[in-house]
Amino acid sequence: xxxxxNKITLILIAFLLAACxxxxxxxxxxxxxxxxxxxFNKAITAFQYGEYDEAEQLxxxxxxxxxxxxxxxxxxxxxxxxxxxxxxAIATYRKVLEFxxxxxxxxxxxxxxxxxxxxxxxxxxxxxxxxxxNAGQDQNTAIAKRALVNIAFSEDAMKNPVDISPIxxxxxxxxxxxxxxxxxxxxxxxxxxxxxDPKYQNEDIFYSTKKEGVWQTGKNIGSPINTVxxxxxxxxxxxxxxxxxxxxxxxxxxxxxxxxxxxxxxxIWTTPANLQEPINSRSWESQPSISSNGKQLY
Length: 298
Prior knowledge:
- This protein is α+β, with helices and mostly antiparallel strands.
- The protein has helices at 2-20, 24-27, 34-48, 52-65, 70-82, 86-99, 104-116, 120-133, 139-159, and strands at residues 178-184, 190-197, 202-211, 214-215, 219-220, 230-236, 242-248, 257-265, 268-269, 273-274.
- Strand 7 and strand 8 form a beta hairpin.
- Helix 5 runs antiparallel to helix 6 (86-99), helix 6 (86-99) packs antiparallel against helix 7 (104-116) and helix 7 runs parallel beside helix 9 (139-159).
- The chain starts with a helix and ends in a 24-residue tail after the last strand.
């Protein structure tokens, strides 16, 4: 758990440093009082432990002590995003742009936020602005370029709608939590899916079986597959005996997120094995898909 918390801390610090590196205001914030800095550090600690309500209040108190503290606005906006308070997050990132109109991190996040809230015109504007300001070829650049392609597709699809009326599969599977990334067994009588608890930010693999045409209550597949870390985004072999899945920050991994394999032996899932190189690397590997003949893994 300490290792996970350290990683989260490093991620948040990297996020804040990236913001500072693009903000003239942030670079010149030597006048921030010790009390404001102390509040800011407490806010980061609350954020890393998932105490978002407390982090929100501490970031606000920090800003009250020093209104030009751009890092605090960044942290507050990120906290709003974790709480899914998208309207507040958008307003806060726009406040960052009042201090620095070319703040490329805020531009990037605004593009993502507007895309997620289906405001495609604004999403396009901020993604294009971000690409103009960010000359590098980093991961965010690739995501922004891909987002613009997806937005163009969405706009075309909305101009040419298809008559589809999706219905909820079953109240025994769909709950107040989040369920996604489904995968069927070959006989279509077992449904595996990712279950996520937004409060604890934890993903686990669940499954449901169909009996007499009715889906049964989804169950946690349990250990040794699921752990206190995140597991999900998986693929089941055609014979139902192999599950390839994604796990992040798991002990024995090559990178932050890797692809793992577990096998069903006499009705018991084996301890997952990391697929190692050349599939897994220090980069991020996820969302595996095994071919029906079991000879290709995408």
